[in-house]
């Protein structure tokens, strides 16, 4: 008999992790699968960060840390917020967690009551929707699409806000679209938020250091809405530290205290060794991330050129992160052998089984008709993957 809780049954498996799992299963069978489904830099953590972790072990930083994080890490985060984002957060307003995903979970579980509405501009990162469902909130999805460069407008947000709206969650640069909001766009959104004092914003800025044009702008730096915005970030993407599991948030005091309380019951503090490594990362000049960003930019341009050779795909030009999010709806209704393509899920399974390329369907991000392609891999893999995808799509009739 199935005794799983209703809470768990409300959740869906992460589609990004599911596709990665399926690709590993096929690899275990001896198939040459190119995994373009995972959002992980293929670079190693810089040596100076690894050395900081070795030093932490040698210095016996191996005991329970304070729940919100070591003071030197909190200070490094506060200094980083000020240096890079023009944000003033006291140490009591910062909470370090086991990855930015836990920061987001702490926030949603601390703020959302059953029936509260949470506005999610689509496409959104897969976990946003699931966290809202876990908290028994009501997701309110705002469609954007290719013609809007996958960015929601202030007018759309204003029209969606009701007396039940509690949160707005978005990322910039965005996973999965790679789109980044300009200062003007965020100022327009902030003007709407400022008129709705009971509405809060979670600004997910985990891809901050992977922005190709212009400079990153944090919506919390707009004075009129600072007390309504929570800034979430981490070291996973910009510093190639996915496995270290360090994320953090800056928030109004009462929200930080709430997250500290809930984290104290779930996981307590993040790994001590990882925290000391993160201190080294955040104290470093941001220029240490530039080489990786330039390589990602080169790969982006390569992938866009390769996709132009595939008839039926439409893309924007992503300004950040390491994803392309093409419209693939022109292939719906086609088939090859026993494979019928009715949606992006079907297409991704077809490409995995026939081309041995793992991708993620847009349904996972609230945007049917699209697929996410990660270019966090070598140029050789991108070229081979594009070749396989083209061949498989050409076979659809």
Give a quick rundown of the structure.
Helix content is 40%, strand content 14%. The protein has 13 helices and 14 strands.
User: How are the strands ordered across the major sheet?
Assistant: 2-8-7-6-5-3-4
Please write the CATH class name of the largest domain. Answer: Alpha Beta
* H-E string: HHEHHEHEHEHEHEEEHHHEEEHEEEH
Computed over alpha carbons, the radius of gyration is: 21 Å
CATH topology of the largest domain: Aspartate Aminotransferase, domain 2
- The CATH H-level superfamily of the largest domain is Type I PLP-dependent aspartate aminotransferase-like (Major domain)
Q: What percentage of the residues does DSSP assign to strands (E)?
A: 5-15%
Return the structural class: alpha/beta
Main beta sheet: 7 strands, mixed
Mean pLDDT: 96
* Spans of at least 5 consecutive residues with low confidence: none
- Number of helical regions: 13
- Tell me, briefly, the overall form: globular
Helix content: 25-40%
Query: Any idea how many domains?
Result: 2
- Per DSSP E runs of 2 or more residues, the count of β-strands stands at 14
CA(first)-CA(last) distance: 44 Å
- Give me the CATH architecture of the largest domain, please: 3-Layer(aba) Sandwich
């Amino acid at each position: 008999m199935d005794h799983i809780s209703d809470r768990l049954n409300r959740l869906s498996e992460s589609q990004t992790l599911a596709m990665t799992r399926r690709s590993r299963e096929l690899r275990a069978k001896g198939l040459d699968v190119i995994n373009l489904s995972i959002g992980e830099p293929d670079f190693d953590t810089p040596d100076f960060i690894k050395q900081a972790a070795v030093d932490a072990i040698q210095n016996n930083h191996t005991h329970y840390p304070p729940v919100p994080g070591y003071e030197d890490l909190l200070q490094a985060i506060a200094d980083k917020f000020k240096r890079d984002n023009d944000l003033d957060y006291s140490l009591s307003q910062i909470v370090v967690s086991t990855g930015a995903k836990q920061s987001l979970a702490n926030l949603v579980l601390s703020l959302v009551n059953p029936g509260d509405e949470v506005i999610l501009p689509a496409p959104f990162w897969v976990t946003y929707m699931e966290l809202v469902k876990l908290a028994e909130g009501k997701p309110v999805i705002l469609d954007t699409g290719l013609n809007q460069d996958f960015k929601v407008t202030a007018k759309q947000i204003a029209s969606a806000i009701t007396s039940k709206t509690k949160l707005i969650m978005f990322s910039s640069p965005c996973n999965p679209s790679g789109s980044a909001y300009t200062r003007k766009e965020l100022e327009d959104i902030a003007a709407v938020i400022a008129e709705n004092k009971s509405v809060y914003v979670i600004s997910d800025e985990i891809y901050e250091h992977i922005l190709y044009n212009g400079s990153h702008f944090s919506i919390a730096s707009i004075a009129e809405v600072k007390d309504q915005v929570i800034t979430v970030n981490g070291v996973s993407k910009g510093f190639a530290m996915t496995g270290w599991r360090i994320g953090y948030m800056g928030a109004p005091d009462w929200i930080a205290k709430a997250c500290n309380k809930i984290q104290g019951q779930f996981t307590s503090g993040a790994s001590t060794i990882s925290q000391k490594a993160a201190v080294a990362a955040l104290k470093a000049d941001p220029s240490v991330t530039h080489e990786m960003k330039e390589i990602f930019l080169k790969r982006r341009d390569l992938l866009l050129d390769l996709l132009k050779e595939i008839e039926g795909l439409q893309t924007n030009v992503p300004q950040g992160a390491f994803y392309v999010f093409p419209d693939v709806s022109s292939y719906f209704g086609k088939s090859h052998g026993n494979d019928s393509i009715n949606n992006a899920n079907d297409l991704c399974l077809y490409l995995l089984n026939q081309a041995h390329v793992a991708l993620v369907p847009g349904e996972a991000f609230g945007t049917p008709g699209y697929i996410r392609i990660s270019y966090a891999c070598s140029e050789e893999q991108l070229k081979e993957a594009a070749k396989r995808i083209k061949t498989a799509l050409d076979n659809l009739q």
